[in-house]
Design a protein that fits this description.
GO terms for molecular function: DNA binding. By secondary structure, the protein is an alpha+beta fold. The protein has one domain (5-60): Arc Repressor Mutant, subunit A. It is 52% helix and 16% strand. A 3-stranded antiparallel sheet has the order 1-3-2. It starts with 7 loop residues before the first strand and ends with a helix.
């Protein structure tokens, strides 16, 4: 069974990690720039998706 709860973050944690507002965070999730999923009405974001997003942003610059 998979028990590493630290590998999933919430929208609030995403905002803290990237230092962005909630509107920007929701836009990134809805556009698919950061892969995520919803359980009921709660967004769950794999930490690896955030790492991939940051890596891609660095490569673009």
């Amino acid at each position: 069974m998979y028990n590493d709860s630290s590998s999933l973050v919430t929208i609030d944690e995403l905002c803290e990690i990237l230092m962005i507002g909630k509107n920007t965070a929701y836009s990134l999730l809805k556009s698919g720039a950061i892969k995520s999923f919803k359980i009921n009405r709660i967004w769950k974001i794999p930490r690896s998706s955030i790492d991939d997003y940051i890596t891609n942003k660095i490569k673009q610059n």
